[in-house]
Amino acid sequence: MTYEEIIKTLKVQGNPKNVEGMARFGITAKNTLGIPIPFLRTLASAFVKTSADREKHKVASQLWDSGIHEARILASMIDIPELVTEAQMNRWAAGFDSWDVCDQVCMNLFDKTPFAFQKAVEWSKEKEEFYKRAGFSLMACLAWHDKTSPDSKFLPFFPIIKREATDERNFVKKAVNWALRQMGKARPTLKAIAVKTAKEILEFDSKSAKWIASDALRELEKPTPSKAGAGLTWD
């Protein structure tokens, strides 16, 4: 399947009603076709099975440059992490214009690159909303997906979360919250630090900070269910 054939397939699958529905969830309607993620995953799987790595990387670049919303998400599904450069990551992140593209690219591709931890820190300092969100989305995705890195690699994220907890922009504060929750949930040995960080953030004189902290604590301090005999007890 060529780049041109993929674009043609995407356009055939376009659904304006879906675009309207996506907009209600804060997803941009600009250059958006309204194609569900499961279809994109199926298309990506078919392409990956029949293409060499260099071809995947080349087509991913073409799909990104098309500017089409779903094509950019698809690009993140077929690209090869080992072939992704820092320059590519910066260029794509600077072009994020919707939270779903940002999060999909981070979870499908960027968190598997050798530059993921570095970029999470760098992008957390950016001014543009979705560019900055990418830093915290990467933190969340790394905590969720990275099963080999030691917990010590995640410790520098906590001061950054505290530093940026007062950002009132919706898509930033939600990503900050996501990062905090994921580090406490996906990495049990970091849960106590996540709870401590949330309690410190709760003391900030900021609506954003108080929401981030209180929402995280509701989840992090939930009792953990466990089986005991035939019944259910709570630890």
Derived structural class: mainly alpha
The percent range for strand residues is under 5%
Which regions are unreliable across 5 or more consecutive residues at pLDDT < 50?
A: 226-235
**Integer tally of domains:** 2
H-E string: HHHHHHHHHHHHHEE
What is the radius of gyration computed over CA atoms, rounded to a whole number of angstroms?
Answer: 19 Å
For the biggest sheet, the summary is: 2 strands, antiparallel
Notes on the protein architecture:
The structure is a single chain. This protein is mainly alpha-helical. Helices cover 64% and strands 3% of the residues. The chain contains 13 helices and 2 strands; from the N terminus they run H-H-H-H-H-H-H-H-H-H-H-H-H-E-E. It has a two-stranded antiparallel sheet with strand order 1-2. A hairpin with a 2-residue loop joins strand 1 and strand 2. The chain is globular, with a radius of gyration of 19 Å. The relative contact order is 0.08.
Brief digest:
The protein is built from 13 helices and two strands.
Task: Provide the fold topology.
Layout: H1 3-13, H2 16-23, H3 37-49, H4 53-66, H5 69-78, H6 86-94, H7 99-108, H8 116-123, H9 129-145, H10 157-164, H11 170-186, H12 191-202, H13 207-220, E1 225-228, E2 231-234
Antiparallel strand pairs: 1-2
Helix pairs in contact: 3-5, 4-5, 5-7, 7-9, 8-9, 9-11, 10-12, 11-12, 11-13, 12-13
